[in-house]
Amino acid sequence: MLEPAHIKYANPLYGQLIVGPPGSGKTTYCHHAFKFYKELGRRIGIVNLDPANENMEYKAEIDIMELITVQDVMDSMHLGPNGALMYCAEFLEEHTEDWLLPLLNKAKCNYFLFDCPGQIELYTHHASMSHIFERLQRDGYHLVTVNLIDSHYCSEPSKFVSTLLMALNMMLRMGLPHVNVLSKADLLKRHEHKLKFSLDFYTDVLDLNYLLEALDDSPSLRKYKKLNAAICSMVEDYSLVSFQLLNVRSTESLLRLRNHIDKANGYIYKAGEEQSVNTLLACAVNAETEVTRQNKDIEPYM
Ligand SMILES: Nc1nc2c(ncn2[C@@H]2O[C@H](COP(=O)(O)OP(=O)(O)OP(=O)(O)O)[C@@H](O)[C@H]2O)c(=O)[nH]1
Ligand SMILES: [Mg+2]
């Protein structure tokens, strides 16, 4: 018999899908965010969906490596690492009903951090991961994609253009509430001399003409002028991409990112945590003076 819809949503379930290129800080974020959210009193657990995750600092509530590992697939099927990862994703999809969902239901959590593999093809060219996420949504999970991108990519205009394209592509493919994050922002000070613009230029993505001019300064990139102009114009037309900054070891930084994520997945409105009307309204309209934002988001990293 079908469950009445109101039962499914009476105890809302939440999930952050932590994605991003290899080495961008996904596993480290899961470790620190887990401790941070736990202190806030949330019933949180980490689900490791990366079948090649060797050095996890956290203890996963659910670990795909107990189901399948990239190494086993490489050995037994004579595949390379990328082919083996695709195989693992398909295997996980096949076992969503009889492995993943029962374990999620058994866990004493209602908020999950999904530590996902970094290979971007899994999200842009392959359907298994998106089928799994769709299945979770059908079970009532309020999902948000948290896309971590190393802030080092701000250090060169050409890298930043590819970052913008990658972020937009991911947003459109995932089709979920989405928060783009420039990770390891504490290291930006080291690259400060390489940044051509102030930091809010990179986070707000408002006027990319300056970026185009900077690209044209480089003789090797000048021949791609039209291509870069088309990419920048597309990113501006969609007007979807912006970034939050994250230093995973700073509580203040985790707190600010949490505010964005809570708004994106609707946690702030539904989770039943005590919220004053003022907090809800402030969150809804993003009420914060530019000075506050500069002080809290930009200054610490410059
Ligand atoms: N300074 C600094 N280093 C960080 C931060 N977040 C992650 N790192 C470092 O970045 C490196 C890669 O982090 P991981 O968490 O393994 O990255 P990942 O995205 O899980 O990598 P894959 O699973 O291989 O795709 C580690 O050495 C982390 O300590 C941060 O906020 N600041
Ligand atoms: Mg990892």
UniProtKB/TrEMBL annotation:
<dbReference type="GO" id="GO:0005525">
    <property type="term" value="F:GTP binding"/>
</dbReference>
<dbReference type="InterPro" id="IPR030231">
    <property type="entry name" value="Gpn2"/>
</dbReference>
<keyword id="KW-0378">Hydrolase</keyword>
<dbReference type="InterPro" id="IPR004130">
    <property type="entry name" value="Gpn"/>
</dbReference>
<comment type="function">
    <text>Small GTPase required for proper localization of RNA polymerase II and III (RNAPII and RNAPIII). May act at an RNAP assembly step prior to nuclear import.</text>
</comment>
<keyword id="KW-0342">GTP-binding</keyword>
<dbReference type="GO" id="GO:0003924">
    <property type="term" value="F:GTPase activity"/>
</dbReference>
<protein>
    <recommendedName>
        <fullName>GPN-loop GTPase 2</fullName>
    </recommendedName>
</protein>
<comment type="similarity">
    <text>Belongs to the GPN-loop GTPase family.</text>
</comment>
<dbReference type="Pfam" id="PF03029">
    <property type="entry name" value="ATP_bind_1"/>
</dbReference>
<keyword id="KW-0547">Nucleotide-binding</keyword>
<dbReference type="GO" id="GO:0005737">
    <property type="term" value="C:cytoplasm"/>
</dbReference>
<dbReference type="InterPro" id="IPR027417">
    <property type="entry name" value="P-loop_NTPase"/>
</dbReference>
<comment type="subunit">
    <text>Heterodimers with GPN1 or GPN3. Binds to RNA polymerase II (RNAPII).</text>
</comment>
